[in-house]
Design brief:
146 residues; alpha/beta; Rossmann fold; binds 1,3,4-trihydroxy-5-OXO-cyclohexanecarboxylic acid
Length: 146
């Protein structure tokens, strides 16, 4: 069982970036937490971050046949990227959208996610725990074959 975690722009700055919104946990801390939980649950995870939209598109395309589920925090691209939406739709792998913050309780431009309609579900608002919930949802999707 292999799950791909993708992280979009500016998430490399977690820890120092607007800590009142995103907390003080770094992306490396989050990755370590996801890895230790994944080990307990006996699943393999790969964790990647890019500030480039095209690189994220390439990673989604390449995931076919290598991963069973994608968990993605597309960050600002969630609200702008038809290319990411089309890649998720084209590849057809179950994809779970996650966010640290509750995008629906923030500025209006964050309320709309262009990828939401091609994702299996969305988790947002639980800080770094959104990633653990994303992992658990990914395992649920694989195990229940839904
Ligand atoms: C985010 C929410 C997005 O609106 C924002 O652009 C981010 C982070 C989150 O995890 O809360 O960069 O995806």
């Amino acid at each position: 069982m292999k799950i791909l975690f993708l992280n979009g722009p500016n998430l490399n700055l977690l820890g120092t970036r607007e800590p009142e919104v995103y907390g003080r946990t770094t992306l490396a801390d989050i990755e370590a937490e996801v890895r230790s939980k994944a080990k307990l649950m006996q699943v393999e995870v790969e964790f990647r971050q890019s500030n480039q939209e095209g690189e994220l598109v390439n990673w989604i395309q390449d995931a076919k046949g290598k991963f069973q589920v994608i968990v993605i925090n597309a960050a600002a691209y969630s609200h702008t990227s038809i290319a990411l939406r089309d890649a998720i739709s084209a590849v057809g792998l179950p994809t779970i959208e996650i966010h640290l913050s509750n995008i629906h309780a923030r500025e209006e431009f964050r309320h709309k996610s262009l990828i939401a309609s091609v994702c299996r579900g969305q988790i947002c608002g639980f800080g770094s725990k959104s990633y653990i919930l994303g992992l658990e949802s990914a395992i649920y999707v694989i195990e229940s074959n839904k």
